[in-house]
Each structure stands twice: as structure tokens, then as C-alpha cells.
Amino acid sequence: MVDKKRIAIIGTNGLPGRYGGWDQLMNHLTDNLKDAFSFIVYTSYYNAQKGLTKFNDAELKIIPLKANGVQSIPYDIISMIHAIYKRYDILLILGTSGCIFLPIAKLFGKKIILNIDGVEWKRGKWGRIAKLFLYHSEKFGVKYSDVVISDNKKIQEYVSERYNIKSELIEYGGDNAKYIPMSIETQHKYSIEPNNYAFKVCRIEPENNLDMILESFSDIALKLVVVGNWDFSTYGIGLRRKYNNKSNLILLDPIYEQAQLDELRGNCCLYIHGHSVGGTNPSLVEAMNLGLCCVVFNVSYNIETTENSAIYFSTKDELQIILRKYIDNEIDTELYKERMIEIAKRRYLWSVITDKYRNLFGESELSLTKEGCGLV
Asked: What's the CA gap between 262 and 227, in Å, rounded?
């Protein structure tokens, strides 16, 4: 009997996942590939379910730190040290926070696969020092990994141009999102009706253009439901306070129950996507899998994800023009819905995504050729 390769997943909140992109990736990797590989998933104490030691047959190793913010650096490093000590064959690292440790990890002969996520150091929420650290952490990550994964063609082009290497393009699935008819109870609870409101789910951060979107809807005769972590930052608290008195704006706290989220999301008339940085965004591909009419912020990552087949806006005025055209029945939403679901069923299925990871895990030789590194 051949022993299974042992794979350590490092850098996330851990399992059980909620609804974020990393969460769904871990859910599907450990479930779809458990017959072929043995997994350990490093899990933050702040996310862990008390007494739970295994999930989808994956071992859970609880780390008493947060997986986000400054604590993410020691969180990732401690996880790597444990994975090396326990002799895991492959370290799958999601995000670059702890990559300053990779030169040491490489000394132990482990295969390191790094998914860099978006270009984290460019995010507007970070100060100058944090951006500098994240920039160098990304450089270390790319230099000392055996395989680098980009989740969007534009990220892949960025990695190629900046570091002169070829990264693997692996996006996200979105077919975990399922259509659920809206119950009468939900309609009464939120004072909404199916196909009569717009919807958005995201982290409440400036780079997701919440201020522009809320201002655009504030004097439009169309309801908007937004689900997000409003109380996580002064930015979110301030936005909610500013717009909470608008009767057409329904600003909800995070919903971690997938069915509840899908019920609200799947019955909207427009899905509003304001993300301005990053790569392929999981919430967007989930909306596409639901066949929603997507109104999307006009940046290269989003255009690539939607194959230039969605409705795009760059400013408050452009978004308001779109909303007024929708209200006046001047937009063929069925056409955009058909486009989105066709793309999603071709590109953003978890069976497709996990098969790509299976191929990376199963290779006996390193698949990444470095052409001189070209670090700057």
C-alpha cells in the first residue's frame, strides 16, 4: 500500500470554513482530495470549534493566534515549523504574511506551494511600513517557493513581469452557492421581495468602494442589501452610522450560514461588486454561478474574471446611470445573467479547481522553472 502524500495547509483561519474564498478552497480541497492525500489544516483558536480535531478527515492543529493582522506573521511561521517537525511532504501556503521564514523552511527539503492571493502590499488599507513589509514578504515567497499560484490572469502577468517566473493559474470555484427560494419570513424580516433589490457581500474596506456604492444608492429608488463586517473598523462603523437612516439601505452584519446568505443573494435583481484590488474574487464567481446580473467595478481583475461580459462602473455617476437605466427597464438583465452563468460553468467549478491542485500535489518533480528570478 502506497502512503498518501501529507499536505499542510497554512495561512488561513482554518476549518471549518465559513464563506470566504480561502474557506471554500479548504473545504473542497480536503473533501474532494481526502482519498488521495492526507491533510493537516492550521486553524486559529479564534475560529476553531471547541473540541473539534478533524474535519473532512483533515487533522486540525489549533494555533493560539489570529490568522489576520500583525498576528498572521507568527501564526504562519509557527504553522510552518510544526509542519516541518511533523514531516509533512508539501506546505501549501495561502497568502504571503509569513514568507520571511521560507529560506529556513527550504533547508528541510519540503515542497512549498504558495498562493499569493492578490497583490497584498498594494492594498490601500495598509500604512507605509506594513506595505514595505508585505512587499518584501511577497518577494521572499516567490523566490523560495517551488510553485507559485496566481488566482487571476492579471496576477499571473504581474508575477511574470515583476519576478520573471511562470506561475500556475488556478482560480476559485463558485458552485458552492445554491439558489434558495426566498421565504415569506425572510421577506417580512428585511422588507424585501424577490428580484426587487440589489445585493452586495464583502469585507467593509475602502478598496471595496462601499462609500461610492452607498452614496450612489442613497437617492435611488431601489433597495440595496449589504452584508459585511461593519463593526470591524472605524471605516465600517462610520459608514454604517452615516447611511443607517436611509430606508432603502439594509446594512446587515456577517451571515455565516451559507443557506441564509444564498437566499438573500440568489434572489436579488442586481449583484453589485465594488472590489478594486486583488485577483479573482470568490464572491463574484459565486454570484456568476448563481446566474446573477453583475454590476462590477471597472478594473482589469474583474474584467478578466467576467470576460468583459458584465456591466461596469468606475464612478458614482456611472453607477447611478446604470441603476436608473435598470429602473427604467433599459437593461436586458437576462442577457447578462446568461453570460455570467455560461462563464461560471465553464471556469469556476470546484471540481475543476481541485483537480488542478491534485495535479500540483501529485507531481513527483517540481513544476516551476525559475528564469533568473529577476527580483527587484
From this structure: 12
